[in-house]
Amino acid sequence: MSKLTKNQKAVADKVEAGKAYSLKEAAQLVKDITTTKFEASVDIDVRLGVDPRKANQMVRGVVSLPNGTGKVTRVLCLCTPDVEAAAKEAGADYVGLDEYIEKIKGGWTDVDVIITMPSCMGKVGPLGRVLGPRGLMPNPKSGTVTMDVAKAVQEIKQGKIDFKVDKAGIIHTSIGKVTMTPEQIYGNAKEFINTVIKLKPAAAKGTYIKSIFLSSTMSAGVKVDPKTVE
Which of 225, 219, 224, 182 minimizes the C-alpha distance to 12? Predict the structure, then answer.
């Protein structure tokens, strides 16, 4: 068995294997055990007691993180000329339609979120082959296909994220950065978990929240006791 590095030993001393911590404790620990030299993201993994293969047990939603995501989100707004000014004022990094559609067809996807209007979906729809695998395809369920593009841009810039359960019944997403205070990480995690709880499908039976883990980029996971999320 290989020896633990100095950093690994320090982490092992702080996190007790198998122990479930309160959400507040986990928010502090995830900062304490992060040893990367870059600004790591704070990730959350929630394992649910659902069968995502069944349409009536799919869990998908959006949440506005009270303390933002801690990162700069690049937003492309594909819209008609009459709302371009409002989208730019709301903070969109790129605004337009035909020219950006051509760029995307050519392979350009250097954005984090794409927002569009229902009237533009006829042009945006065919881009699904490029945008779908990258998780960039606008969707009404995530609020990225809307008549009020300015409001959608503003919400994304302020910390709105969308999420959905994967095939294994797990929701994995980033909820902040380790440079945030423990209180900010706790606030974001609490809001996220409570949103997931509200989305419990009526068809889901048994234990809904099976496990919760907080971690940062390349760190070990900190197990959270679901009962501590109030």
Answer: 219
Gap between the Cα atoms of 125 and 205, Å rounded: 36
What are φ and ψ of residue 205, in 5° steps?
Answer: -115, 155
pLDDT of residue 1: 44
Residue 156 to residue 163: CA distance in whole angstroms: 13
Residues forming a β-bridge with 113: 75
Burial of 13 (0-12, 13-18, 19+ CB in 10 A): exposed
Burial of residue 9, with CB atoms counted within 10 A of its CB: 0-12 exposed, 13-18 middle, 19 or more buried: exposed
Q: Reduce the DSSP state of residue 64 to 3 states and report it.
A: strand
Summarize pLDDT for 106-138 with one digit per residue, the tens. Answer: 999 999 999 999 999 999 999 999 999 998 999
Residue 91: both structure tokens together: 């903070």
pLDDT in tens, 165-196: 999 999 999 999 999 999 999 999 999 999 99
Instruction: Tell me which H or E stretch contains 32.
Output: helix 23-32
Q: Do residues 149 and 77 lie in contact, with contact meaning Cβ atoms separated by under 8 Å?
A: yes
Which helix (DSSP H) or strand (DSSP E) does residue 189 occupy? helix 182-198
